[in-house]
Amino acid sequence: MAVASRLDTGLAFTNVLLPTLAKGVIVRRSGVTALAEKVQADALAVATVKRFRARYGPEPLRLRVTGRSIALVLDASDAARLLADSPEPFRLDTVEKRAALDHFQPHGVLISSGEERAARRRFNERVLHPDKIDAEGIVRDEVDLLLRHARSTGALTWDAFARAWWRAARRIVLGSGARDDHEVTDLLRQLRGNANWAYLHPKRKRLRERFEARLREHVERGEAGSIAGLGDPDEVVGQAPHWLFAFDAAGIVTMRALAIGGEGHAGIWESARLWPTTPVILRESTEPTDWHGTWLPAGTTFIVFAPYFHRDRDRLPYADEYAPRIWPLPAEPGIVPFSGGPGACPGRDLVLVAGGTALEVLRPHLEVPVLRAPLPATLNHFGLSFVTRK
């Protein structure tokens, strides 16, 4: 197994990892995202990983980082193995992930392990089903109101869409009584902003307590028709911060799907393939593991850079185009817009229904698509705007 030169290790950080972090892993930074689109940062990142594979071969590439064992995954079959063999021997709750998510969801399933993780995962899988709540009806309600606003102004902007999407998200997760409670999601946004800095930002205990108290007020209503009404309040309070966090990413995916003229579930899947909202997937080994004859120690952090597997033109003839035909089962094992294996997003079907419904309602009334192939490697959703049809 190859070890990257110091220069290439530096390039892995400066061209691939740091731009991803700068855009905001937990909450997107609008200014940096706009700059990343201008320079097409993800195109450079994908090209860098492709050069690594050409230079070092398909096996995981060890980076030269003092005191750490870190490997960049370069082959789709290795990425599939990591995801399939989670959480043992490849745990999801990596050091970096715990440092970030602990700011706002210390009891979240993504930073849990052992039986605690298994129980929380089962709970998530049980309640995050579109047949348990009327997500489609809620989204239709809010998007219909959004359309009225868009017609009055002549355009649909990200800001207007995001306000409507958050109203729908609060209703789906917490109930209609939380529809206009902007404060609960504003508090969460502040905590997520801190989480962008992971262990470099001190925990804001009082802010999190304020958020959790506000959250619990809604959860303890146990409103019928919401996810909060499907479980024990303590379980819901522990997991709801992640559900709300995930709805933010779902909104971004939906807005980008509009830009390519996406339709239905395939439109959502394709948007998430073209511009993954989780571009860096991390796993950490719990024991020594054999990789093509080389043993890597326990505690090795594995990095799967999803845009490389989703947008490599040498392997995927449809890499830079809208290709709904590949879904729901793409032949390429490295295409994982909702992750994969036992760690796959348990709310995927809920996201597909909510996002697909928004596309169905909005698309006939907007001038779409606004983007055509070859599609950009980096897309700033904050800057998207759609003219309404007369």
Automatic annotation (TrEMBL):
Matching Gene3D superfamilies: Cytochrome P450
Molecular function as annotated in GO: heme binding; iron ion binding; monooxygenase activity; oxidoreductase activity, acting on paired donors, with incorporation or reduction of molecular oxygen
InterPro entries according to UniProt: Cyt_P450, Cyt_P450_sf
Name of the featured protein: Cytochrome P450
